[in-house]
Amino acid sequence: MERRKFLKGGLVAAAVAPLAAPSIARAADTFSWKMTNAYGPGSPFYVEGPGSPTDFCKKVEAMSGGRLKIQHFAAGELIPAMEGFDAVRSGTVEMNAANAYFWAGKIPAAQYFTTVPFGLNFQGMNAWLYHGGGQALWDELYAPLGMKALPMGNTGVQMTGWFRNPIKSVDDFNNLKMRIPGLAGKVYSELGVDVKLLPGGEIFPALERGVIDAAEFVGPYQDRRLGLQNAAKYYYTTGWHEPSNATELLINKAAWDTLPADLQAIVSSAAMACNLESHTWCEANNAAAMVDLVENFDVKADVLPKEVVAKLKEVTDQVLADGAAADPATKKVHDAFFAFKKEHDLWASISEKPYHNLLG
Predict the structure, then answer these.
(1) pLDDT beyond 90 at 4
(2) Residue 251 forms beta bridges with which residues?
(3) What is the pairing mode between strands 68-73 and 31-37?
(4) Helix, strand or coil, per DSSP, at residue 52
């Protein structure tokens, strides 16, 4: 009887031991990180809501069973809006949410990982990043600075912007004061625009007071929230400047390397989930907002004249060529981006384009 009791106890202990040991290891293997953000408290898409950075933090905590907790700080809550790059690089925080083109003054090639004028749309951008070598180039670009980045959101195509006066020809850009970031700002500068880079919260007062004559932000839902329809009435489209716009999840590489492989996979998967969810959220909300702006706010929505778009394309090609010639890293990314775009355009010409032109 004693022998049977001993054997029974031993079998129970043996059965429990393999379950208990990993449980203890998981409990000890926990991380508490901080994420800053370039956008202000309460901003839909950029801070809160489906696919937003705060949603990303919740997803990571849930998927990891609480092993990785990320505390989110909107712009101004821990650091100023545009200091996330330096905060992550120094290790002050482990993560930052923003757009890579904000760091153009530090890394010119970073702009290609937000958007490129006349570049790839949402489908193409993600195809390049996930399957066309784009992510590897992003890793290579940031590695010397001790950082890593992942796509964590995308607005899709954006509106050209709000103008206090109509745009009838290229000459109307001369001496125009406009809020516009990224490579598109350089293109406008070549056409005589006085380019301003303002945080989202400063756009409406500047436009309302006439400090600027025009402004680009995102699209109908986000723009209406800022009240831009109350400061300007001419709302143009083509999306030439931002055919898509990727949110950047910036990560301190030393901190990243401390995560076990499963937590790295969780972060990557949560970022990819937010990339898709944020875009579908934009698609679901922009249509009704556009109708509201036109019907209830007397907004005059229109497409830029063809000759204006043609000139913008001509100048864009030159600006991109000049940038690539001035910096080897930019040239490498530029060449890879447009090589992929050439192939993707071929497929789009027999898939998306006929659908939109003939059936849409």
Answers:
(1) no
(2) 95, 148
(3) parallel
(4) coil
- Residue 265: strand, helix, or coil: helix
| Residues 6+ away with beta carbon under 8 Å from 247 | 46, 53, 97, 98, 99, 151, 152, 153, 154, 274, 275, 278
Angle of CA points 37, 162, 113, to nearest 5°: 40
Take residue 70 and report the two structure tokens written for it. 């990320």
Quick one: tokens of 239? 């999306």
Phi, psi (rounded to 5 degrees) for 197: -110, 105
User: What letter does residue 107 receive in the DSSP assignment?
Assistant: -
Amino acid identity, residue 267? V
Q: What pTM did the predictor assign?
A: 0.89
Half-sphere exposure of 71 (CA within 13 A, CB side): 7
In angstroms, the CA 311 to CA 23 distance is 63
Render pLDDT for 150-209 as a digit per residue (tens, 0 to 9): 999 999 999 999 999 999 999 999 999 999 988 999 999 999 999 998 888 899 999 999
> ∠ at Cα 274 (54, 354), nearest 5°?
145
Question: Tokens 């293109």 correspond to what residue?
Answer: 187
**Residue the block writes with tokens 């083109």:** 101
212: which 2 tokens? 């600027």
Q: Residues 6 or more apart from 283 whose CB is under 8 A from it?
A: 156
**Number of continuous H segments (helices) and E segments (strands) in the chain:** 13, 11
pLDDT value at residue 125: 98
Q: What is d(CA 241, CA 16) in angstroms, rounded to the nearest whole number?
A: 60
Distance CA(148)–CA(252), nearest Å, equals 6
User: 319: part of which helix (H) or strand (E)?
Assistant: helix 306-326
Residue bearing tokens 């490129």:
116
Buried b (16+ CB within 10 A) or exposed e, 9-31: eeeeeeeeeeeeeeeeeeeeeeb
The tens digit of pLDDT for each residue in 76-87 reads: 999 999 999 999
The partner residues of 70 in beta bridges, in order of sequence, read 33
| Distance (Å) of CA 355 to CA 127, 224, 350, 358 | 19, 30, 8, 6
